[in-house]
């Protein structure tokens, strides 16, 4: 077993008089030389049988020869061993093989692991004595699970279906922040025509779904709802390749490699009966001390292997797909809305033929996608139909309420403005649109980007749920489906045992943290929630709406909350208040924390100065702490002295919005002097602690988050503009204005 798996040692080592082991130079012995010969021989065997080619130079990837499931070496043993050597990105333990592959984030980590562990012994479940591991670099990690099974009937894959120029064009037209009330954009016409004339599909698609998957994201197995879409569904893969898993109810399985720029056509049995999806494989983990194998996203994808080496050099081997570091994949899924019930040949999985067979109940419908209403017509929105939301009726189908992976949904915006006659003279509309764009840019720069940058630090300051928010969640009836819109690090997601709470947030970093905590969350924009209308019993919007920079957008966010609620469903909304002192009491935000002092240039002074009211010009103390969203202000933060925040880069001008000249930089822990402000966040990098010397802190970057702080009554006034809703309760809670709104 050992001989069959041992790799060659790098040439230099084989030829020299000695070699390094455990970092030390040792004299080569007879046993070493024998070992070397065995390794060389074994290497050739490995190459011939499995196409594994080792290299002499250092790479991120290591072959762990003699250490695999096939010779009884446990995965946990390897994880422990490799995980201690650096940031382990993936560990591949091919079934039945006496070797494994470890991929590190950095080359030097892999190199260090090789030096340290080459030649070490580990126990094996099948050998009586410990086995010796041999480590060697490989250029890429071949995947053993075959991607070459026969395609499910009706499935077609057209490689290189579009050019890379066209790919760029399509990707550059995506607008993630708005829903576009159009069907398939005209720039896809050529592609669609081509597919129709080639006979790939019978119907002209009138609906486009764009899903974007960050590395590590997937889509749960599902069958696109029969009653919603016709036969013939096409998915164009852009930006990156992936492997889509197809499964038949009888358990048959096919892994289909979808190369970048390829088109997948699902028709007949493959569309109706087989489930499709892709997911982070369970056997790949992030290691390191806090690894959690269950939740690790897949960071590698399978790509076709490079061309075979020239014949005759003994290196021919199976040219299977190999693993490559994964990029962002964007898929364009073209579908045709069905106008009549489905009459397919697969009633066991057909919702149109539900009465006739043992079908799953409608409760299994996912809230994440708006099913196409039968009145949707031919030009329905492209953005509201998110893939994972379609019901999963395949063999993998579980009654899941929400997609376990997060994907972003985009609308498709045509390059250039439409020149419809109607639009031409419509100045108001134009102005509104411009204003919206500018507001969006401001938020991108001063909200979205900032949270992305500070996600880890921000999360480390957010622990305790706010009591009244927690009480709201815990007071819901058992089984309630709750969406926390702007869930941050997920501190409200695990609260109610009897309810089902899922989150969404604009920051992929924060959503990632939720996932690491085992919560379900997805990345999306609060103005375009990929959640089915009427799906939720309740929703939360805690410290979100104040990040929107126009009243219209704030209203739109509220409307979006209401849309996803069922009639009678309730939303709890918190926004930061302009009034940080209310009924004689200062909010926690203004109050110094117990015993907290600020070291200033001339000695300590209280965190909060003498400023008593929002208008008080004498508020002298500039606190160093981060101006946190008050409902989440639960951890004492850095108490280093604050420099006046450096001026942030000029935000792009938003018509109707203050320019920077008018967007004051707020001083943390002092009363607000304006409603539209930039609030500094003093970024503490990992490892820095609040008490650290000034020097380290001086270098810490300062980010500016945009806020619109609400005046008393403003939130209620905004709610009054909502149709079909009533405010059940409004209150002030530690510097926030809060309402509970019910959908009528
Ligand atoms: O991303 C893909 O290629 C497939 C998406 C999908 O299956 C869906 O949206 O239903
Ligand atoms: Fe699908
Ligand atoms: Zn059907």
The average pLDDT is 71
- In what order do the strands lie side by side in the largest sheet? 27-26-25-28-29-37-36
How far is the first residue's CA from the last residue's CA?
70 Å
The count of β-strands is 37
Query: What overall geometry do the principal axes of the alpha carbons give?
Result: globular
* Bound ligands: 2-oxoglutaric acid, fe (ii) ion, zinc ion
Count of helical segments? 15
Structural class: alpha+beta
**Main beta sheet: strand number and arrangement?**
7 strands, mixed
Radius of gyration over alpha carbons?
29 Å
Low-confidence sequence ranges:
1-24, 144-148, 280-325, 357-425, 595-661, 693-698
β-sheet strand percentage: 15-25%
Structure commentary:
With 744 residues, the chain is α+β, with helices and mostly antiparallel strands. The radius of gyration is 29 Å and the shape is globular. The protein starts with a helix and ends with a strand. The structure holds 2-oxoglutaric acid, fe (ii) ion and zinc ion. 2-oxoglutaric acid is lined by residues 209, 211, 219, 224, 235, 276, 331, 333, 387, 390. Zinc ion (ZN) binds next to loops.
How is the secondary structure organized here?
Elements: H1 2-5, H2 11-15, E1 18-21, E2 24-27, H3 30-50, E3 54-55, E4 61-65, H4 75-83, E5 88-92, E6 99-104, H5 107-117, E7 121-122, E8 131-132, E9 134-138, E10 141-142, E11 155-158, H6 164-172, E12 174-175, H7 189-197, E13 207-213, E14 219-222, E15 233-238, E16 242-247, E17 253-258, E18 263-266, H8 268-272, E19 275-278, E20 300-304, E21 321-325, E22 329-335, E23 408-409, E24 411-412, H9 421-424, H10 427-460, H11 467-474, E25 481-485, E26 500-505, H12 508-516, E27 521-523, E28 536-542, H13 551-564, E29 565-576, E30 581-582, E31 585-586, E32 597-600, E33 603-606, E34 676-682, H14 694-699, E35 702-708, H15 714-720, E36 725-733, E37 736-743
Parallel strand pairs: 25-26, 25-28, 26-27, 28-29
Antiparallel strand pairs: 1-2, 3-9, 4-6, 4-9, 5-6, 7-8, 10-21, 11-18, 12-24, 13-22, 13-23, 14-19, 15-18, 15-22, 16-17, 16-19, 20-21, 29-37, 30-31, 32-33, 34-35, 36-37
The structure holds 2-oxoglutaric acid, fe (ii) ion (FE2) and zinc ion.
Fe (ii) ion binds next to loops.
């Amino acid at each position: 077993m050992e001989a069959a798996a041992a790799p060659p040692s790098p040439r230099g080592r084989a030829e020299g008089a000695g070699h390094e082991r455990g970092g030390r130079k040792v004299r080569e012995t007879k046993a070493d030389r024998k070992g070397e010969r065995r390794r060389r021989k074994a290497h050739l065997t490995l190459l011939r049988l499995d196409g594994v080619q080792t290299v002499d130079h250092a790479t991120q990837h290591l072959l762990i020869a003699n250490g695999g499931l096939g010779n009884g070496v446990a995965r946990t043993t390897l994880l422990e061993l490799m995980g201690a050597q650096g940031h382990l990105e993936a560990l591949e333990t091919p079934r039945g093989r006496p070797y494994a592959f470890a991929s590190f984030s950095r080359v030097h980590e892999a190199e260090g692991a090789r030096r340290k562990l080459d030649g070490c012994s580990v126990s094996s479940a099948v050998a009586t004595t410990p086995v010796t591991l041999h480590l060697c670099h490989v250029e890429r990690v071949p995947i053993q699970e075959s991607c070459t099974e026969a395609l499910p009937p009706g499935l077609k894959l057209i490689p290189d279906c579009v050019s890379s120029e066209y790919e760029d064009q399509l990707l550059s037209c995506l607008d993630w922040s708005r829903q576009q009330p159009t069907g398939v954009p005209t720039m896809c016409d050529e592609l669609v025509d081509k597919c129709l004339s080639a006979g790939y599909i019978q119907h002209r698609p009138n609906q486009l779904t764009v899903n974007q998957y960050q590395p590590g994201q997937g889509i749960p197995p599902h069958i696109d709802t029969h009653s919603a879409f016709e036969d013939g569904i096409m998915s164009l893969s852009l930006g990156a390749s992936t492997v889509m898993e197809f499964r038949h109810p009888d358990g048959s399985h096919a892994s289909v490699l979808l190369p970048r720029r390829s088109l997948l056509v699902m028709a007949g049995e493959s569309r109706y009966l087989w489930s499709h999806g892709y997911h982070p494989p369970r056997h790949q983990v992030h290691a390191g001390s806090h690894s959690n194998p269950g939740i690790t996203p897949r960071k590698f994808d399978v790509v076709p292997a490079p061309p075979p080496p020239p014949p005759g050099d003994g290196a021919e081997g199976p040219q299977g797909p190999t693993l490559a570091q994964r990029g962002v994949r964007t898929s364009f899924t073209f579908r045709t809305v069905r106008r009549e019930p489905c009459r397919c040949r697969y009633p066991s999985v057909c919702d149109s033929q539900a009465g006739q067979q043992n079908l799953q109940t409608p409760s299994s419908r996912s809230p994440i996608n708006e099913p196409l209403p039968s009145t949707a017509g031919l030009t329905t929105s492209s953005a509201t139909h998110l893939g994972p939301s379609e019901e999963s009726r395949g063999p993998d189908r579980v009654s899941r309420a929400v997609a376990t992976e997060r994907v972003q949904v985009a609308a498709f915006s045509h390059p250039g403005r439409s020149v419809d006659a109607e639009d031409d003279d419509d100045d108001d509309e134009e102005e509104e649109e411009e204003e919206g764009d500018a507001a969006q840019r401001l938020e991108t720069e001063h909200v979205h980007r900032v949270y992305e940058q500070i996600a880890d630090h921000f999360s480390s300051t957010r622990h305790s749920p706010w009591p009244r928010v927690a009480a709201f969640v815990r007071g819901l009836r058992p089984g309630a489906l709750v969406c926390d819109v702007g869930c941050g690090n997920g501190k409200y997601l695990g609260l109610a045992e009897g309810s089902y709470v899922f989150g969404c947030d604009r920051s992929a970093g924060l959503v990632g943290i939720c996932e690491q905590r085992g919560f379900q969350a997805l990345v999306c924009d609060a103005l375009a929630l990929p959640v089915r209308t009427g799906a939720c019993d309740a929703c939360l919007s805690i410290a979100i709406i104040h990040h929107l920079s126009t009243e219209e957008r704030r209203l739109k966010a509220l409307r979006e909350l209401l849309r996803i609620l069922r009639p009678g469903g309730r939303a709890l909304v918190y926004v930061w208040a302009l009034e940080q002192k209310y009924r004689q009491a200062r909010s926690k935000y203004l109050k110094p924390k117990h015993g907290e002092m600020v070291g200033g240039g001339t000695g300590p002074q209280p965190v909060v100065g003498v400023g008593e009211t929002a208008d008080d010009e004498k508020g002298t103390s500039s606190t160093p702490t981060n101006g946190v969203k008050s409902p989440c202000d639960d951890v004492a933060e850095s108490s280093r002295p604050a420099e006046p925040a450096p001026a942030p880069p000029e935000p792009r001008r938003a018509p109707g919005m203050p320019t920077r000249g008018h967007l004051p930089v707020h001083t943390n822990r002092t009363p607000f002097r304006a409603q539209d402000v930039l609030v500094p966040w003093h970024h503490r990098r990992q490892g820095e602690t609040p008490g650290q010397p000034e020097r380290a802190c001086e270098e810490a970057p300062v980010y500016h988050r945009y806020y619109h702080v609400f005046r008393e009554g403003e939130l209620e006034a905004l709610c009054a503009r909502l149709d079909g809703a009533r405010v059940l309760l409004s209150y002030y809670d530690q510097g926030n204005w809060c309402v509970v709104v019910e959908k009528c």
